[in-house]
Design a protein that fits this description.
The structure holds 2 protein chains of 2 kinds. Helix content of chain A is 69%, strand content 2%. Chain A contains 4 helices and 1 strand, in the order αβααα. Chain A has helices at 3-7, 31-34, 46-108, 112-128; one strand at residues 20-21. The radius of gyration of chain A is 37 Å and the shape is rod-shaped. In chain A, 8% of the residues are buried. Chain B is α/β, with parallel strands linked by helices. Chain B has 17 helices and 25 strands. In chain B, the strands form 5 sheets. In chain B, strands 12, 15, 16, 17, 18, 19, 20, 23, 24 and 25 form a 10-stranded mixed sheet that branches. In chain B, strand 6 (135-143) and strand 7 (150-154) form a beta hairpin. Classes of the chains: A mainly alpha, B alpha/beta. Chains A and B meet through strand 1 and helix 3 of A and strand 15, helix 11, strand 16, helix 12 and helix 15 of B. Strand 1 (20-21) of chain A pairs parallel with strand 16 of chain B.
């Protein structure tokens, strides 16, 4: 890799073998995290500012994740409602069609269908007592 | 086979809305076997749905037997026969048919193929059920040339712009709104042999909605000179397809070159041709785990870093390693050595291990415009893997990009994630060189999600959806991220032409907890119930690309279609879950 190629990436320390600690992320109860009035001031070190930036950006990501999650759950609920409404509609359509079919058949048999049902019932009564 | 009988069943008691759609079925004719042409025409005349006209286009003078068949068809009141004076080719004939057509949609049928008698009815049902559909396509199978026996069903996925760019998987039966087909310029002679693919690419760029009809409604005959029988029989057609894709890439400013795949007929490889190289940050969370690989006890993350440094050709990237609290102190020096001249940042996150949190802080502390999350148990062997992932990730309509991951023994570990198995990786255990369902393992395609073992995403999109959710410390954080992106209207892509080795979960306990699944279901149940990129008939999780057993197919279809009968809607149904629809870009 060439020097020119590396220089285009945001600078950082080359050859540095130390590992940067992120211990500041462990302190959930750190007041600075919750202090909405926190403002930078001149005697703060770059390190402290970086740490505050880390916490703030994590809070931002978390907030955006919460928003996305709520949108998703809202969308899921709306989708389920639409599905249920449609199923309800289709069931009613089928019910109405069945009613019309029964009426049609009943008319076509001149009341014969009801007669058949009465006959079947009487046969059953005689058979089973 | 049982699947054919079930596929042919259709309820006549369907709904077509207040303004039932109408179709112009266009059949270009050029000296076919007259028996097959007769069978084709008969299948159209026998349609159970009435809203159609048939436009037969005789592409130049025809033998007398064929002319007789055309003459008999002309007697039908809804059939017209155009007789072109000269043979101008299939595009010219198709265009003539398009200009003569008068109905709302056009449907292209080849002169020796056969439609299911329910084809137009099924399409009418789907078009009436969904609003503003501009293009629709069905599943298909093949007819043996002599016997007419049906075989090789192609159960297609939901619409995938990325797959259409690599392969004309839409195939038949393809239905396009006639006004839009004319507006985009219709059929082009320059793409003879791939005229449908060329038109579909242009239509997809402007379509409001594209619908998949998950039924086998078209039977493609294996003629001796047809690519249905011999994929090499029309090499010129495949070259036409490459040109169609190349034109599409140029028109859409997609940074790639179209190259015919050397191993898969009809598949177009996209070779990256990036105009600029935006800074990339490769983020690797690690615990410094060791394992035996090829008999050697290796430090996984060291192997990951050294392999990507050795092989990658991308000029602008940095590596950000997020170490956990238990990592050995000597690890830092080894990683810096492994990185060589590559820029590397080392962070130690001493919080309880949480993959999501580690990735997020790595992203926050990195400077790249494109983020690539990489597991510490991966190895890179492909030189242009970053270029390929960036090529997709920087497209405006694309969210997460994944790669085909292979186990150390060459078998597939990941080729995208689907909802089946709650969700799960596709094609796990397949041979690494397996083509997949009609070359699905050789090209890019849209999918529900990709694994974060190798996942690229633009920083702006990552931050827009809140990164990885800390609610998923170990499992499903990648699926959740991808579904958040999908919900925002982005398309997730797995590029199976990009390969990375992944030893999978050798670093962490791979067990998924019930509460993790419950949490995922609570947010994403509708998508997990009906994966928009799957097909209700695709049940094969085994080694075959076709359904495992006919009985499995029948049982599953009965379940799915039992639901369909009650709701009267198709599956999957975009109306039930609005995905926003960034079809292209």
């Amino acid at each position: 890799m060439t020097e020119q190629r590396i220089s285009k990436v945001p600078p950082h320390r080359r050859g540095e073998t130390s590992v940067e600690s992120l211990d500041h992320l462990r302190s959930e109860s750190d007041d600075s995290v919750l202090d909405n009035d926190w403002t930078p001031h001149s005697d703060q070190t770059v390190t402290e500012l970086q740490r505050e930036l880390d916490r703030t950006r994590i809070r931002l990501l978390t907030a955006l994740d919460v928003v996305a999650g709520v949108e998703a759950e809202g969308g899921a609920t709306e989708a389920r409602m639409r599905e249920l409404e449609h199923r309800h509609h289709m069931v009613k359509v089928e019910r109405d069609e069945l009613r019309r079919e029964v009426e049609r058949l009943s008319a076509a048999t001149g009341g014969g269908l009801r007669h058949i049902v009465r006959l079947a019932r009487s046969i059953l009564r005689r058979t089973i007592g | 086979m049982i699947w054919k009988e079930f596929a042919d069943s259709w309820s006549e008691d369907s709904r077509y809305g207040d303004a039932p759609p109408t179709f112009s079925v266009i059949v270009p004719v050029w000296r076919p076997d007259p028996r097959h042409l007769d069978e084709c025409i008969s299948s159209i005349l026998a349609q159970t749905y009435d809203g159609w006209e048939l436009v037969l286009v005789a592409d130049g003078p025809q033998p007398s037997a064929v002319a007789s068949v055309l003459g008999r068809a002309e007697g039908h009141p809804r059939t017209m026969v155009l007789r072109l004076p000269e043979n101008g080719g299939i595009s010219a004939a198709s265009q003539a048919g398009l200009e003569a057509a008068s109905n709302e949609f056009i449907a292209m049928v080849d002169h020796d193929d056969v439609l299911s008698v329910h084809a137009l009815g099924a399409f009418a049902h789907e078009l009436a059920a969904a609003a503003a559909v501009d293009m629709a396509y069905s599943d298909e199978d093949k007819l043996e040339h002599e016997t007419g026996r049906r075989k090789m069903p192609f159960y297609k996925p939901g619409f995938s712009m990325e797959r259409l760019r690599c392969q004309m998987y839409l195939g038949h039966l393809l239905v396009i709104r006639r006004e839009l087909a004319l507006r985009v310029g219709g059929f082009r002679t320059a793409c003879d042999g791939a005229q449908d693919h060329d038109l579909a690419l242009r239509v997809a760029g402007q379509a409001r909605r594209i619908v998949h009809v998950p039924r086998i409604l078209y039977h493609w005959r294996e003629s001796p000179d047809s690519t249905a029988l011999d994929t090499d029989s029309k090499s010129w057609a495949w070259e036409a397809g490459r040109r169609a894709v190349a034109d599409h890439l140029e028109q859409t400013r997609f940074p790639a070159r179209a190259v015919r795949s050397p191993i898969a007929a009809g598949v177009i490889d996209l070779e990256p041709a990036l105009e600029d190289h935006r800074p990339v940050s490769i983020i690797i969370p690690t615990g410094g785990t060791r394992r035996l690989v090829s008999g050697l006890n290796i430090l996984l993350v060291e192997r990951a870093v050294s392999s990507l440094v050795e092989h990658s050709t991308y000029p602008e990237y940095e590596i950000v390693v997020v170490l956990d609290a238990e990592s050995d102190e000597r690890l830092a020096a080894r990683l810096v050595d492994a990185a060589g001249d590559a820029p590397i940042r080392l962070l130690r996150d001493s919080r309880d291990f949480n993959f999501a949190d580690a990735c997020n802080i790595g992203a926050i502390r990195s400077g790249g415009e494109v983020l690539i999350f990489l597991n510490d148990d991966t190895e890179v062997e492909m030189p242009d893997w970053i270029e390929r992932m960036v090529m997709y990730a920087t497209r405006p309509g694309i969210g997460a990009v994944g790669a085909k991951l292979l186990y150390g023994d060459g078998r597939v570990q990941h080729a995208g994630v689907w909802a089946r198995g709650g969700p799960a990786h596709r094609y796990v255990g397949f041979r690494g060189d397996h083509p997949g369902n009609f070359h699905a393992l050789r090209l890019a395609q849209n999918c529900l999600a990709v694994t974060a073992a190798c996942l690229a995403v633009e920083r702006s999109k990552f931050e827009e959806v809140g990164g990885f959710s800390s609610l998923y410390p170990l499992a499903y954080n990648d699926v959740d991220l991808c579904l958040k992106l999908l919900h925002r209207g982005y398309r997730n892509v797995v590029d199976c032409a990009t390969e990375v080795v992944h030893h999978e979960s050798s670093s962490r306990n791979p067990t998924v907890k019930d509460w993790e699944i419950d949490l995922l279901q609570r947010r994403w149940r509708p998508l997990l119930m009906s994966d928009p990129f799957d097909n209700p008939a695709n049940l094969a999780d085994g080694v075959d690309e076709y359904p495992a057993t006919p009985s499995d197919v029948v049982e599953r279809k009965a379940d799915v279609h039992g639901e369909l009968a009650l709701t009267g809607r198709s599956w999957p149904d975009p109306e039930f879950y609005n995905l926003g629809g960034r079809w292209h870009g």
